[in-house]
Amino acid sequence: MADSELKADEGRLQQAALDLLAGSDIQFRREIRLDIALVKNHPIALVFLPAADIPTFVGEGRVDLGITGLDQVSEHESITASTEDTGAEEVLDLQFGACKLQVQVPEYGSIRDSRGLIGKNVCTSYVGLTEKYFAELESEEQGSNDGYVPTSNKLRTKIKYVGGSVEAACALGVADGVVDLVGEAFCPDDYG
User: Are 78 and 132 in contact (CB under 8 A)?
Assistant: First the structure.
């Protein structure tokens, strides 16, 4: 077995991660349908997994390094508290996959900002970060000066998990707004 293991994102950043590895002279051959590849010229094993799984494996020390989005690390940390022995941190910004998590509402609807979604239905793939955001909004709305932030089970805003087509949630009547990743290819018309 290799001395070190590196996890690489299987999703939208996979090609950029593969290009980075090739440019770093990390030579490997990945067999079809295998998630592990041994590096030919270094004592490293590459493990290819979904982006959301990487912070868990790195955070628990099962592998040494991972390539995934900061959104995945942030979401993982929002739902899994770090301890002395666990947690993932950004070591280097690889300058690819630039996007941001953004609250979206239908263009022709009555809601004009995030506060308008308080008490409404919101769909997202980032439940932990979304709950934290709306907990802070609700706390501000209530004028809480004592630092109290409601827990997710006391939120008036209903956060629903959608793993894929988040942008369809408003158009299909499942949500009043969504929280989703937005990049350069974003089209507001996708949100109904």
Answer: yes
The helix/strand/coil state of 120 is coil
What pLDDT band is residue 62 in, cutting at 50, 70 and 90?
A: confident
Pairing of strands 4-9, 121-124: unpaired
- Where in 55-124 does DSSP place strands (E)? 65-67, 100-104, 121-124
Which residue do the tokens 């270094």 mark? 42
pTM across the whole model: 0.76
Task: Catalogue the E-assigned strands of 98-162.
Answer: 100-104, 121-124, 158-161
Q: Give me the helix-helix angle, 70-79 and 127-141, nearest 10°.
A: 70
Strands, sheet with 177-182, edge to edge from the N-terminal-most edge strand: 100-104, 177-182, 121-124, 158-161
Q: Which two tokens stand for residue 106?
A: 């239908």
- Rounded Cα distance, 94 and 79, in Å: 24
